[in-house]
Amino acid sequence: MSSSKLSSSSYSSVYRSTPTSDNSTRLSAYGSRKYCRRTSSRASERSKSSFSSLPTRRPKTSASACVGGRDNHSFVVAMIEGRGVATEVGMCFIDLRTSECILSQIADSQTYVKTLHKLNLYNPVEIILSVTAIEPSKSKLCKILEDNMPMASIIPIGRKYFNDAIEEDSASLILGITSKFYCLAATGAILKYIESTQNIFFTNHSIKFKYQGCEGTMMIDCVTARNLELISNINNPRSNHSLYGVLNNTRTPMGARLLRTNTLQPLSDVTTINMRLDAVEELIRHEETFFAIQTALKPFQDIDHLITALIQVPKKPSVKHAEQSINNVIILKHTLKLINLLKESFTGVQNSLLDAIYSLLNDLRLEALEERINDVINEDITYVKSPLALRNQRCYAVRAGFNGLLDVARQTYKETVDDLNEMIDQYREQYQIPIKTQFSSTAGFYLSINIEQLEDKQLPLIFINVKKKRKTLTFTTLEVMKKNTKISDSLTEVYLMSDKTIEDLISEIRNDISVLYKASESIAMLDMLTSFAHQCTVSNYVRPEFTDTLAIKAGRNPMRESLYVDTFVPNDTYASSATNFQLITGPNMSGKSTYLRQIALMSIMSQIGSYVPAEYASFRIVDQLFTRICNDDNIESNASTFVVEMRETAYILQNVTDDSLVIIDELGRGTSTHDGLGITYAICEELLKTKAFIFFATHFHELTRSLTVYPNVVNLHLEVEIEEEDSRVAMKYLYRVKDGRNDEEHYGLKFGQIIGLPENVIRKATELKELIDSNKEKSTSNKIIQRRKTLLQLTQHLLQIRRSSNLDKEELRKYLKMVQEEFITKMEALF
Ligand SMILES: Nc1ncnc2c1ncn2[C@@H]1O[C@H](COP(=O)(O)OP(=O)(O)OP(=O)(O)O)[C@@H](O)[C@H]1O
């Protein structure tokens, strides 16, 4: 963003520079703070040069029409979607009257339901899209926008304006969304668009930015997703030891994608969550149906991928595209057959969500689609994995009779393949070696032999391009190569002649593409629910409830449990609005982090619709999940531990709500102990103003005493047993969460002894600790003496006042006030 900096705290001031009805029409409600009027011609020069590629097409309702409040709709939005099959849409809405920017990034389904819902909330007059979403062919998103947002004008602008260049000192609010590339890219584009077309200039630190997740979902910022290892493992990105990895028992790519999206964006609507849980329960109860569905799901190809391929129209026809189109139709035919088999597996289940899935799969339009495909494609054609078999399927896909020349080309193909096989038989006979025929989609036919079968004989010279692959020799002959070329030529003819018929069929399929989207979404949902049911049966999970309290009996950390099945120690958790702040202490390695993460992970699981690892679990719906967990290896941010800590905490304090869940695993470590303690205490007090459930692990034992003045603070600790014999110390970790604070506060020294720090170091450390303790005591007793003195002084003052009868009422009042203020200041300094 060239002239705009993202700022969470400052407000906008947006001014027109070119004369309009009012030269200085202020667009912002917050503009009085600071503003900038661009009077020079630089503004228009810059916008001209940077937007030379903007379209000249005028919108139906220009943004300028609503500027100044002449129209109720004052929103303009820029949108961009991610590449690939997974649908990730980034949006930035700007309210032209207040200059408030609302950023949103949504992981959506193929029908863009959530994106449309968001758009309907703001009802923008203009939708800015990248020109690549419109030309050469309209993207799925563009078509859906045209159909569903008829009142909005779609404005294409160059793809290059969608970039996420954010200046370095971006505020803490941005911390949570730095990896949300698409919404930041949309922000960059919309600001440049408005600057250029409206000739409006946004000053630095002047726009109010707000990030809004998707309605009806729990907001999880990217730092939290990373800290909790929701999708990938921090230490080993290749390992699938993450929450997603643990829960993923899906059988289809669509199911896996849906699970991934849900893990990052769980639901917050209890009715929908309960519907999912009912379905999972039904699947667990009907084991046979569950296994039948799981088996029926396995052979599905990626339907979303298929749909994307089906709706793409090539710029120019080509053999490659013709070949791919036949493939797509074969896969679609196969998919429709699999959907029928899947429907048959729905026996005996009675559940509203499963019924809804069934009826989407039972759509008559799917049957009609199948019939239409069968009119064109041979009945026995099906999808096969082997490249040679699939090539044959493609060749014979279109029924005979559509094109007379097609049958001739197929005959040529068949004869050439037969000739080639005959020729290879002759090689075997002539050279008396057991040659095998091989095929690869790139090289075509070639030959091979196991080296041992050559029996020390030399390979005859007719065989060329000899390569050795372990114990096998691969080779070919000139004749084989010639035949390959001939086969390839006849196949090209077959593909081109099939193309017209296939393209006609595909354009008919496109008319009913929505039914395929829905089928794909239902299969994804069914797959995810079956995956939850599977996980539940193999891991002994329980169905969660949703109430006002967080109550977990014998909860386990789903990720740790998967590694330490037998040894994991379960723990209870209880939090309500009367005990919403829980301080957790315990020595290093006692299990604090594991316990904190367990609470967050189980909350996420419950809101996806999964069962949870516990004996009983009740959750309060979480609208936002925040974590502050130490990751000393935060190299990316290039910031010190303390800076990262403070930035993350500021983000939490700015965004926490009464329904949030906050997990803080140590704070105030990156600075001096006193500063750290002070800051941590102040942060705790700030958090205590909310009703959010807060779980706070700390090594500052002072907090366990000072914060107990708040009735809603609960102290918990992780139990350990210390055995001391002679000079040997042993610590036994029990991993049990107990009420209250722990009596032993100097675990650090004990820990040092256990892990073998030299004896003299331990001795010195103990001496120093005792010295600091005694100094502390001294300064405490000094303060007590001082406080007494101040009290005595106050008594003397008051006695003096009583004795002096010459003061009038007003003078007495003033004097008393002065004494009072002085007393308060002195006493405050002594606490
Ligand atoms: N409930 C449990 N049951 C069994 N093992 C556990 C349990 N909780 C933790 N552990 C084990 O203890 C190890 C340390 O746990 P964790 O990192 O949570 O401790 P910690 O108190 O946060 O440590 P530190 O204060 O040093 O960060 C884990 O790697 C795990 O193997």
TrEMBL record:
Domain of life of the native organism:
Eukaryota
The DNA mismatch repair proteins mutS family domain extends over 660-676
Q: Which GO terms describe its molecular function?
A: ATP binding; ATP-dependent DNA damage sensor activity; mismatched DNA binding
Q: Tell me, which GO biological process terms does this entry list?
A: mismatch repair; reciprocal meiotic recombination
Which Pfam families is this protein grouped with?
Answer: MutS_II (PF05188), MutS_III (PF05192), MutS_IV (PF05190), MutS_V (PF00488)
Where in the sequence does UniProt note compositional bias of the Low complexity kind? 1-21
SMART domains in the record: MUTSac, MUTSd
The membrane-spanning stretches of this chain are none
Q: GO CC terms on record?
A: nucleus
Q: Where is this region: Disordered?
A: 1-66
Question: InterPro entries, alphabetically?
Answer: DNA_mismatch_repair_MutS/MSH, DNA_mismatch_repair_MutS_C, DNA_mismatch_repair_MutS_clamp, DNA_mismatch_repair_MutS_core, DNA_mismatch_repair_MutS_sf, DNA_mmatch_repair_MutS_con_dom, MutS, MutS_con_dom_sf
Which UniProt key words apply to this protein? ATP-binding, DNA-binding, Meiosis, Nucleotide-binding
Q: Which family does it belong to?
A: Belongs to the DNA mismatch repair MutS family.
Q: What is this protein called?
A: DNA mismatch repair protein MSH3
Q: Which organism is it from?
A: Rhizophagus irregularis
